[in-house]
Amino acid sequence: MSAGCGHHVDTSNVTKSLKRVLWAVLVINASMFVVEISAGVYAGSVSLLADAVDFLGDSASYAISLFVLSKSLRWRSGAALLKGLSMGAFGLWILGTVIYNAINTGTPVASVMGSVGLMAMLANLVAAFLLYQYRDGDANMRSVWLCTRNDVLGNIAVVIAASGVFATGSQWPDLAVALILASLALHASVQVLKQALGELKSTNTESPQTS
C-alpha cells in the first residue's frame, strides 16, 4: 500500500494521451474510495476502510497533478497540506475503529471483504495497465507506476484478511491488516505534511508568486 506515495505528476509537458490516462486513473481511484468506504461500513471491515484511505491518497495526488500543479508553489503546497491532513484524519479514525472493534466483538462479513478486495485489486491492475507504457518515463511517472503496482499488495492483504475471517470466524485477521494499512497511511500523511509545510515555509522567505 502506498497511501498516495506522495507523488504528483508534472503535467506541464505531458501529452494529451497521458492526461487522458491520468484522468482515467483519477476516476478509478475516486470511485474505489467510495466503494470501499461504503463496503467497509456495511461489512464491518476495518481493513476495507484502511485500504480505502490509499485510494483517497492516490485520488488526491492525481487531482493535485491535474488541477494545481501549473499554479504557484504556495497553491501546490496548500493542496498537498490538505491531502496530508485528510489522510491523517482518516488514518486516526481507522486506528480508533480498530480499538473499538477489538473491544466490541463482531465478525465482519468475509464474503463482502473478499469480493470488494478483489474488485479493488482489479481496479489497481487496470490503473497499472494504463500507466505501464509510461513506466520508463521520468522519475515522477515511474513513481506513479510503481506506487500503483504496489497498491495491489494492499488489496491482496485485504483478500487474505477475508480468508482469515472466513476460516477462523474471528475479526482478528481483519483488525491486524487494518492496523498495518492504517499505520502506513499515517506514515505517508506525516511525510506529505512535512514536505508541504517545508515548501510553505520556503515561500514565506521569497517574493509572493501569482498563480
Q: Would you give an account of this structure?
A:
The chain is mostly helical and 211 residues long. It has a single domain (19-203), classed as Alpha-lytic protease prodomain-like (Up-down Bundle), CATH 1.20.1510. Helix content is 79%, strand content 0%. The chain contains six helices and no strands. Helix 2 packs parallel to helix 6. The protein is globular and about 55 Å long. The mean pLDDT is 82.
Secondary structure elements and pairings:
Elements: H1 16-43, H2 46-67, H3 73-103, H4 110-131, H5 139-168, H6 172-204
Helix pairs in contact: 1-2, 1-4, 2-3, 2-5, 2-6, 3-6, 4-5, 5-6
Short descriptors:
211 residues, mainly alpha, Alpha-lytic protease prodomain-like, globular
CATH architectural group:
Up-down Bundle
Runs in which pLDDT lies below 50 for 5 or more consecutive residues are: none
Distance between the termini: 33 Å
Round the mean pLDDT to the nearest integer and report it: 82
The biggest beta sheet reads:
none
Helical segment count: 6
Q: How many beta-strand runs?
A: 0
Q: Regarding quaternary structure, how should these chains be classified?
A: single chain
Helix-strand pattern, N to C? HHHHHH
Portion of residues in beta strands equals under 5%
Number of domains: 1
Helix percentage: over 70%
CATH class assignment = Mainly Alpha
